[in-house]
Design a protein that fits this description.
Elements (H helix, E strand, L loop, with lengths): L10 E7 L2 E7 L5 H9 L17 E4 L2 E4 L12 E3 L12 H8 L9 H14 L5 H7 L10 H14 L9
Parallel strand pairs: 1-5
Antiparallel strand pairs: 1-2, 3-4, 3-5
Helix pairs in contact: 2-5
């Protein structure tokens, strides 16, 4: 049983994680990655380098991709955090997740959640990104297995299957 009393050094933090308001008592020095994995129980974001070098822990913080190993959990008070676990809608995978399966864009899987979250942020900003934008979006995500070509192919497939944007100039 953990001690959440005022003398324990923990702070009560409320954030929205994958659309659900979540309240956790955390030590001020704990990073968001550890809060998500150990306190919230979401293990999709991987703990690899713990230095912001690999991108395996990428999540969205208020819509922007961040390395969760570099963000303090207390900095997320009142903010929106989206993780790989929040992308699927029921049994329906997000198009990026499905494209990774269809194009064999992963091998060991350690970088996969970070790659997908980086691409998700790209597609939210630019539904029809260029090849250069795709490569740039995942440039902060390392893949030890070398699946880069298939990661790019998966992103290109999502781009090419996206419906064109329509404008309503009424």
């Amino acid at each position: 049983m953990s001690d959440n009393s005022p003398t324990s050094g923990k702070q009560l933090v409320t954030m929205t994680v994958n659309g659900e308001q979540t309240e956790v008592a955390i030590e001020p020095r704990r990073v968001l990655l550890d809060v998500l994995r150990h306190d919230v129980g979401l293990t999709g974001s991987k703990k690899v380098c713990e230095m912001g070098d690999c991108g395996a822990c990428t999540v969205h913080l208020d819509g922007a991709p961040v390395y969760s190993c570099l963000v303090l959990g207390i900095e997320c008070a009142g903010k929106k955090v989206d993780t790989i676990e929040g992308l699927a809608k029921g049994n329906q995978l997000d198009p990026i997740q499905q494209a990774f399966i269809d194009h064999d864009a992963f091998q060991c899987g350690f970088c996969t959640s970070g790659q997908i979250m980086s691409l998700k942020a790209l597609f939210e900003d630019s539904p029809k990104p260029s090849d250069e934008q795709i490569v740039t979006a995942v440039s902060g995500n390392l893949c030890r297995c070398g699946a880069y070509q298939n990661i790019v192919k998966a992103a290109q497939a999502v781009r090419d299957e996206a419906k064109p944007e329509t404008r309503n100039d009424d």
